[in-house]
Structures are given as structure tokens and as C-alpha cells.
UniProtKB/TrEMBL annotation, chains A, B, C, D:
The lineage of its organism: Bacteria, Bacillati, Bacillota, Bacilli, Bacillales. GO terms for molecular function: DNA binding. Residues 13-73 form the HTH tetR-type domain. Keywords: DNA-binding, Repressor. Residues 36-55 bind DNA. This is TetR family transcriptional regulator. PROSITE patterns: HTH_TETR_2. The keyword Ligase does not apply. It comes from Domibacillus enclensis.
Length: 196, 196, 196, 196
DNA sequence: GATGAATGAGCGTTCATTCAT
DNA sequence: GATGAATGAACGCTCATTCAT
């Protein structure tokens, strides 16, 4: 009954969600500055004032999307910490599991991923936070005896973030590799190295 | 008499170089869109038309900087290929040498680095090109017997690019690590892995 | 209540029409290049962005005015074709009628006339089109037996266009002659010639 | 001896004449506003300051060209007055002679013609002056008994100017008719009219 | 006579944002 | 909740013109 007679896109929350989704795609495709509010509202079939009913400003909607990304990513990163008591056999697979989660997220939300990881001025911060979390994980894992301590774990963590970053752009989003493949390879490299 | 050597065009080239340098810094600091020509010329102590005496447009000067970056980077990447006949002892150091070159470049030209690697819409292409070059190097090195072949070298190459990328931002430009340290750590990780 | 009839878009159309009218006058008075958008909007009491709400560009509004002129002129020219079965007595008056129509149009819309006939880069085309239409009329009229065929009707047609052109500028718009006088004189000249 | 070692276009008067000629063509082709001094000097192989050595301003060079046109045209118009004592036989040919002179001038100096007759803001004045001169001629010719007096000679004169104008653009410069053809047709029309 | 370098002045256009309804 | 209309504030760019040499 609350919905009777509604034109498409004119329910409050619906409009908001629609705008948010369209904005994400537009930002991802054209970048922040080349994305025009006028375009977003056109695609959402609403007028410009309607946009400002739901979002304070262009920057605000962008930051909202950013925040969305950051939260989801943080969850994934935290979840990827290895539990104690794993046998050596299972180690690689467990590590890969965490990476797969991240890659899956990037596969399913490419727009959000582009915004939070590449477009946003605070992408560096986001990556730093991710690295910090990973470092944390690694340190526990060293303590748990999984890894040796001959390397600076902060550097390893940032290295991993960088690998995820570049492989997402160059391999995942281009369709050249799947999340599983990438995860497996990263594990292979970082765990055993290249040396014969 | 001190100026006798300056023939025609000399002052012009100076102005041009000045604008180019300032533009690089401005773009690096504020990004493409928030960089205003009016600001660049103000800092260069010239008027706006002077800018257009030397550059066709805002986009043109940006692309010129991009190109500058790409060329220097390509040189460095090519130079980092390992020559044949290295003994196993020298291997890590030689690999690190190539990385150090890249990190030094980023240290000495941070503005150019930001432009070409982070700001430019074609940054992804640049990184892809770098990865391709590194992959090339790696494949020769596999053939030369330096590395085993259990991993996809394209993924390794992209991973390395990602590591360089993230470590530059998070460690090099923040002053937390030197080029040498980063290079050594990367070598340690990628050559031997983390496994105990 | 007086305004009840004005539904959505009504004020917008008003602004648009106002801008169009003012622009016509400005273009006519100062020419294309010396006409500034800033001046048009000032006279219309709106801001510059409002202008761009209704017109794509300065060139676009100019072309719209041009087109307006061309269409009205084409109607008038077509309407001035003589119907068949006129007796010789009525001929001069009928011909004059067509000319009067054109001159009236130029009297009532001098700005449009200046734009379409003098300022526009395509004025030559417009005149050529008018001449072609007149030639068409003349040829039917020759066939109908009104005129002899000793002259090239394309030249006559262009000659008439030229006369209309110059007399409009030199006589009509200066107030030295009325539309009726000019029409009558043209008829007298072109029908009978000057020879004693 | 005065000429030894000169580079092309660097003799004072030569440069001036060259600039004048190129400017005429540029103005004729692109109109006043779309003609850029930078372009003129480029085509003349001189620098911008050199231009200002010879001409006070863009407007000044344009006006100089205008003046050139006006003077030559005035001569031609004056020369076309019919001398007394012509027999009726020779009349059409003599009148045509004057017109041919004008058309020849337009054929040989199209750039100048475009400038003085179409581009210049004072084109209307120039045409008015020409019309006045023609009217003068016509009045003497009426007095000499060549023409009847049933028409307003000022209107005839302006009509002739208009015909010349339009036929020059539409027939002469397009190559559709020669000066002689146009002159003959105009005479035929204006002397005898179209009526059967 | 000629030039390399530079500029004052200005214009068209864009876009996020807001009022009045 | 939604809209038609309007705007403030910039910004990139152009071009005729002029120094200093």
C-alpha cells in the first residue's frame, strides 16, 4: 500500500540506493572529476535537487562509497588471520583462502574497488591500513612459528598489498586470471621464493 | 660578456623548463584537476599566455611529464636485466641493484613518479609495460638457470611492480626505508620466501 | 490565479525567447564577434549559465536565428509565385505583391534580416537559395507566357535578389522609401526597362 | 648593391607589400576576426613585431585594403559615365562597357573585392557611394535624353549596385558567367525589361 | 630592419549547488 | 519527495600588441 502509484525510482530509499549505485559506476569509469552530478541524476531519472536531498555534496557521496569499501575490506583482512595450530600441510591453502576472499571482493565490486583503492585521495591510507592489519597478522603468525623472522614484516605486508593491487588491475579485472589462480601464485612466490 | 653564450631561444628554454618543473610539483601535490594553470604561472613568475607559448594545453604539459617518466623508467627496467654467467653468490646483489635503480629514481623524482605511476590515467598501462619488461627479464633469467619455473612469471612480474609501487609510497617517500633496504628485503622475500 | 495557466517550463520558455530576441538585436547591431554573451545576459537580466541552459553555445544561438530567418524567407519567396490566368493588367501589381511581402518582412524583422542576409557566413547560400526559388518562379511564369525569354532567368533572379538586398539596406532601413515604393519601382524597372 | 645579402622578404617595402597581399587573401578567405596576425606573418616569413613596423594595427591594415578597394572602384564608376552624343545603336554597348570594367576588377582582385564589398563594416557606405555616383551618371544620361524619367534614379542606381553585388558573388566568382555575359544581361534587363 | 620573449585584457564555457514552488 | 529554473565562482585559452635587444 505504501508503494501504490510510485513512478520508478521515486521512493526515497530506492532513489538513494539507485543514486549510490550509479554514482559508484560513474566514478569508477570516469574518475571523480569527470563524473558529473548532472550525468548521475540523468541515469537515475531524477533531477539535480533530488540528488541533494540524499547527499550533501558530490564529495559526500564519493566519501560514502569510499567508506563502504574500507569497511568491507577491513573485515576481509581481519578474517584472513591464520588461526593457531595449523599443520604445515594446510598452511599454504589457508593463506590462499584469505587472498581469495579479497580477490573475490574485488571481482564482485569492481566499482567500489576502483574508488577505494585507486581513485580516492585516501587510497594510500586505505592501503596503509590494510598493510598494517596484514603486518599484524604476519607477526602473530611468526610468533606462532609459521614464518621465519629474517625479513621486515612491515615490508612484507606492504609488498603483499602492492601485489594484490597490481594483480587485481592487471590480471583479475582483465580476466586473465581467476581469484584462485592469483592467490595460489602469490602464496607460491611469497612462501617459497623463486630460487632454485 | 657573461651572457654572450646565450643565443636566441635560451631564455625561452629556461622559462619552459621552469614551467615544466613547477607543473610537475603542482600536479604531484594537487592532482591534475586541482592543479590550476594560473597557479603554475604565478609560481613561475610569468603570465598565463607565456604558458601557452610553450605548451599547447594543460593536458599537453601533463602528458609531456608522463612521457618523461615513462622513458626514464623504461631505461631503468631494461638495464636491470641480469647478464649471464653470474655466480650464485652474486645473484641477490645484482637483482637488488636493478631495484635500487628504480627506487633511486623515485627518490630523486618523486613528482614525476607520482604523475606517471599514480595520477596519470595511463598509469595502469605504464605499470603493465614495466611488468612486461620485467617478465621478459625473468624469462631470460629462467632460461639462464637462475630461477625455477614453478610460477607464472607474468604474475611474478606484476607482483614485483605492485611491491615496488606500494613500497615506494608507504616506505620510500615516507622516509621509513631507504632504497637499499627495500631492495634487499624484496630480494630476500622473492628469492627465498617466508617459509621457515 | 492570473498565473494558473503557466505550467512547468513556461518561465523557461520566456527566458529563452527573451535571450533569443536580445541576441538577435545584439548580433544585428554589433556583428557576431563583437557580440558578447556577457552583454546579452546582462540585457536579459540573467546570468551567464542561464544562457547555456537554453543554448549550446554562442554559435548555436546564432545559427538558430539564421535558421529562423531562412525559413521565413523561404515561405515568402515561395508564396510570391504568380498564379496562372492573370490578365496583363494585374501582372505588375501581383509581382509587386511578392516583393512587398519580402520588404515587409525585412521592415518588421530588421535584426533577423541583418543576421541572415548580411552577417551570416552562409548569407551567400541563403541568397543563392532565394535566387534559385525566384528563378523557378520566373521559369513557370515564362512558360505561362508572362515574360519573354531573351534573358537568362538565373541572372534575372540573382539580379532581383541583389536589388532587394541593396534597396533594403539603402532605402528601406534608412526610411527613405517604403516597401510599397520599392516594390513598385523594381517592377517598373524590371518589367519595362529604362529605355525611352 | 643596396640589395646584397638580403634574405627573402626582408627588404622593407617588399615585406610591407607582401604582408599587404597576404593579409588581403587571409581577410578575404577567413573574414576579419578569424584572420590572425600570427597567421599572416607566418605566411610572410616574418615575425609579429615586423608586422607592427609597417602597420599600426590589425584594423589599420584592414582599412588600408578597404581604402585601396574604394579608390579603384570609384575610378571605375566615374569612368562609366556615358559621354554625350552617342547614337542609340551604341548605347547598350557603352553601358555594358562600364559594367564590364567593374566585373573585370572584381575578377582580378577578388580578395580586395570581398574585403571592400562584403567584409568591411563600411561596405554599406561604399555601396552607397557607388550608387550615388551611378545615380549621378544616370541623371546626366536622362538629361542627355537616353532614358525616360518614369523611375526614381536613386532606386535604379541602388538596384544596379545590388545586381552587381549579387551577380559577382553568385555568377562571376563561381565561374558560371563571364564579366561580358553578366554585363550584357544586366543591360538587357534594365534597358528593355522582361515584359513581352 | 628585425626578432625572441612576454603580456594585458578578455571571453566562452562548465558545474556543483540552491531557491521557490 | 520532487522539480524547473537559476546562479556564483571559476578556469582554460586566445590574440593583438609591445619590450629589450
Amino acid at each position: 500500500m505504501a508503494q501504490r502509484g510510485r513512478k520508478k525510482g521515486s521512493d526515497g530509499e530506492l532513489s538513494r540506493a539507485l543514486l549510490l549505485r550509479i554514482a559508484a559506476d560513474e566514478f569508477a569509469e570516469h574518475g571523480y572529476y569527470e563524473t558529473k552530478i548532472s550525468n548521475i541524476v540523468k541515469k537515475a531519472n531524477v533531477t539535480q535537487p533530488t540528488f541533494y536531498l540524499y547527499f550533501k555534496s558530490k564529495e559526500a557521496i564519493f566519501q560514502e562509497l569510499e567508506e563502504l569499501f574500507r569497511k568491507k575490506l577491513a573485515c576481509l583482512t581481519i578474517d584472513s588471520r591464520l588461526e593457531e595450530g595449523l599443520d604445515e600441510q594446510a598452511l599454504p591453502e589457508r593463506i590462499a583462502g584469505g587472498l581469495i576472499g579479497v580477490f573475490h571482493f574485488f571481482t564482485e565490486h569492481p566499482s567500489l574497488g576502483k574508488i577505494g583503492f585507486y581513485l580516492s585521495p585516501s587510497a594510500a591510507d586505505t592501503k596503509a591500513a590494510m598493510a598494517a592489519q596484514i603486518e599484524d597478522n604476519l607477526l602473530s603468525e611468526v610468533e606462532a612459528g609459521y614464518f621465519h623472522q629474517n625479513v621486515d614484516m612491515s615490508i612484507v605486508a606492504n609488498g603483499l598489498v602492492g601485489m594484490i593491487d597490481q594483480l587485481t588491475v592487471a590480471k583479475l579485472w582483465t580476466g586473465k586470471n581467476t581469484a584462485d589462480e592469483l592467490a595460489k601464485e602469490i602464496v607460491a612466490i611469497v612462501l617459497n621464493g623463486l630460487k632454485k
